[in-house]
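FAQ

Q: What does a record look like?
A: Structure on top, sequence underneath. For example:
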């Protein structure tokens, strides 16, 4: 049987008709291995009777074993949907129970491994082009390639060891914390938090058993949502969990360590627990080798710590299915809160018209400061590629690229490349890493624009990023002992030093020539043997000047950054929303209306595709479908996308800014003189109806957008069907019955 789910994935179940039938527990384990969600599992299991009947009909003779198996499946899954959910929960509980029991036993002593130092390279002075060569095109000369480094493997981010579903609760407690200057909040049972009492095997196992229970599912769910919404790398996610645990537990190191480790472990990462002299440690496995960081080898895998580690440690070897190593690849696009740095002017000396004032996000710089340098595989040159393949932050693109692109537009590739090359060569100031940082330190592209000094590797990384983004050319990093430069695959013929890669000519460029040098000039001896790393290409170029922006839709807004604040331009390149916001959305929201959200401080504002402010409210919080949840004159309500009230008799008290809280610090709504807890979540507002739960007796009901009761408040639970959003599932605890209601 093959089932295609709506997300585009395909799940295969192959039932042999003679031997090896799958038991229910086998199916549940298979679902876990494939990261099948509980809702999808219900759908798959509901289709089993159809598939099995079809197989039976195709056979010429009945097979008694098959019939027995089919009957057992039909009997087992003709029970209610909630029973299937319980079975899956029981499977998860059993898996974690087995893991916890293993934790009580699987401990051994390990010695710390020698740290891997950052390679020391003899400082090489920056190159200067002789004056007598400046007016001549470099001679054509091929250079030998000693080694071509294989590209880094692509590894998707880990998924939870078991799919985590959000659990609706009456009283939500939140923890508010900050990481890399970015405010965040997650649900957490602060009043009932577990405290780790000891550091022995049983204390660790007991803590894991509690911290991985359903009580903390919403905490894990919220953390995973933050990872997704903020586009956090594995390293940023690990740092976020550490900040969360520290906010919860303060100076209680052991409890904080266990909480962050349990969250990271359940998120799919390879984690081990360690103990030394009463102190607990979280150890993580990494896809590669980290410089200057203590580690232990456990079952053939290196495990690193977030702090200095003792010479000898008591480590638990227990593992979970499908656990995955942390990747230090940073693709870019991480959405840390924006804190503008002081602007810096960078200009080419030969082409003074190429100049730009650039500010970067200081919170992103804080993340880069925490980032450990590493390499993957057997060649240490891969560490440079990890920096070079990271995308440039969008705010930097908006400040830098329009100016550069406007200058090079219409030029030949060689002319454009020469101008970008001189911008990097003469616009940046050279400095030795050993003198500045005490060791060799690589920069992400934004760091070369932020810090006052950079060396040959940093310049090569920045230059390669700009060339790929603006010119769309293939680029390789070129390494010779003590020095790095760049090779570019031009579509035009140009004379100079070059290398051949996969039958294509790559011309050398020297970003570290302080007085400027043209494409093809390189201070490399003919006999030198080079190492090459072909970088990831930019698949599609963006016209940052917007002079020839194609009209994809009749009306649309394009985010625009003026170096200080964000606004919008239209397709004609005209500023239609002034640059006065901290951030703006780059996607149209709210169905066919294509509305856009801009944020200033804690408030959000809504614009239509023509750049008109569409509602006279004080602020907005975007929700789902065609609704806007907002504040108007200290009242809270739900608006339609024309700024008119959807529900004007549901009045929300707002005691603190945009946050709606009741006396229990819960999001709440008043209706008919009763308080209903929790503002409707995304999956509880469909079309023109809202599901609510009454605080006084815990009963559920449904109202429409005009405040009229659709279903009375007499049900123990109401939720939307996972298969048809126009159907409600109604539960009655006393009778144990489940009914449906068509909206």
């Amino acid at each position: 049987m093959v089932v295609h789910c709506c997300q585009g994935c395909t799940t295969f179940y192959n039932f042999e008709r003679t031997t090896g039938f799958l038991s229910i527990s086998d199916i549940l384990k298979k679902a876990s291995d494939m990261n099948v969600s509980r809702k999808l599992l219900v759908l798959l299991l509901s289709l089993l009777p159809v598939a099995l009947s079809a197989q039976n009909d195709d056979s010429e003779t009945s097979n008694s074993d098959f019939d027995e198996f089919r009957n057992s499946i039909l009997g087992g899954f003709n029970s209610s949907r909630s029973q299937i959910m319980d079975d899956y929960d029981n499977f998860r509980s059993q898996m974690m129970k087995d893991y916890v029991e293993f934790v009580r036993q699987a401990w051994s002593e390990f010695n710390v491994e020698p740290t891997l130092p950052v390679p020391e390279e003899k400082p090489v002075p920056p190159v200067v082009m002789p004056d007598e060569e400046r007016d001549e095109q470099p001679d054509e000369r091929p250079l030998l390639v000693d080694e071509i480094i294989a590209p880094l493997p692509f590894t998707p981010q880990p998924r939870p060891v078991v799919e985590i579903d959000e659990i609706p609760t009456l009283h939500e407690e939140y923890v508010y914390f900050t990481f890399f200057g970015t405010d965040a909040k997650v649900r957490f049972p602060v009043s009932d938090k577990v405290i780790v009492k000891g550091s022995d095997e049983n204390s660790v196992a007991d803590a894991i058993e509690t911290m991985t229970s359903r009580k903390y599912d919403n905490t894990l769910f919220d953390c995973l949502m933050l990872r997704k919404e903020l586009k956090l790398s594995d390293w940023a996610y690990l740092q976020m969990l550490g900040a969360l645990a520290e906010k919860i537990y303060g100076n209680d190191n052991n409890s904080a360590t266990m909480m962050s480790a349990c969250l990271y472990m359940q998120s799919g990462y390879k984690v081990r627990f360690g103990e030394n002299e009463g102190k607990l440690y979280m150890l993580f496995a990494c896809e590669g080798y980290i410089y200057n960081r203590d580690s232990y080898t456990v079952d053939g895998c290196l495990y690193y710590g977030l702090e200095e580690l003792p010479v000898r440690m008591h480590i638990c070897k227990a593992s979970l299915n499908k656990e995955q190593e942390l990747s230090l690849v940073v693709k870019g696009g991480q959405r840390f809160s924006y804190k503008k740095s002081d602007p810096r002017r960078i200009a080419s000396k030969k082409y003074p018209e190429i100049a730009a004032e650039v500010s970067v996000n200081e919170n992103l710089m804080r993340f880069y400061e925490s980032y450990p340098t590493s390499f993957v595989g057997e060649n240490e040159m891969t560490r440079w590629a990890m920096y070079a393949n990271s995308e440039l932050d969008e705010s930097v693109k908006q400040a830098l690229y329009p100016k550069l692109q406007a200058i090079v537009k219409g030029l030949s590739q060689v002319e454009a490349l020469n101008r970008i090359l001189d911008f990097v060569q003469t616009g940046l100031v050279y400095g030795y890493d050993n003198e500045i940082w005490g060791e060799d330190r690589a920069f992400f592209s934004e760091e070369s624009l932020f810090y006052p000094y950079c060396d040959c590797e940093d310049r090569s990384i920045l230059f390669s990023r700009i060339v790929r983004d603006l010119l769309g050319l293939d680029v390789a990093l070129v390494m010779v002992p003590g020095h790095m430069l760049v090779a570019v695959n031009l579509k035009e013929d140009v004379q100079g030093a070059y290398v051949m890669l996969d039958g294509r000519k790559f011309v050398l460029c020297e970003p570290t020539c302080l007085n400027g040098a043209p494409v093809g000039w390189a201070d490399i001896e003919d006999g030198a043997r080079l190492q090459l790393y072909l970088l990831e290409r930019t698949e599609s170029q963006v016209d940052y000047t917007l002079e020839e922006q194609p009209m994809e839709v009749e009306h649309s807004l394009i985010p625009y950054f003026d170096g200080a604040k964000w606004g919008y331009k239209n397709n004609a390149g005209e500023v239609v929303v002034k640059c006065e916001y901290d951030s703006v959305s780059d996607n149209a929201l709210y169905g066919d209306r294509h509305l856009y959200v801009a944020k200033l401080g804690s408030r959000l504002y809504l614009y239509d595709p023509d750049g008109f402010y569409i509602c006279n409210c004080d602020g907005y919080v975007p929700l789902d479908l065609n609704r806007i949840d907002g504040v108007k004159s200290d009242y809270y309500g739900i608006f339609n996308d024309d700024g008119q009230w959807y529900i004007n008799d549901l009045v929300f008290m707002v005691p603190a800014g945009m946050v709606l809280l009741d006396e229990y610090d819960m999001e709440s709504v008043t209706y008919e003189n009763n308080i209903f807890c929790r503002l409707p979540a995304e999956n509880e507002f469909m079309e023109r109806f809202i599901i609510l739960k009454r605080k006084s007796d815990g009963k559920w009901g449904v109202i429409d957008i005009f405040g009229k009761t659709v279903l009375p408040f007499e049900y123990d639970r109401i939720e939307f069907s996972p298969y048809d959003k126009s159907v409600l599932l109604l539960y009655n605890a006393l009778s144990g019955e489940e009914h449906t209601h068509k909206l």
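Q: Is there anything notable about this one?
A: The radius of gyration is 30 Å.
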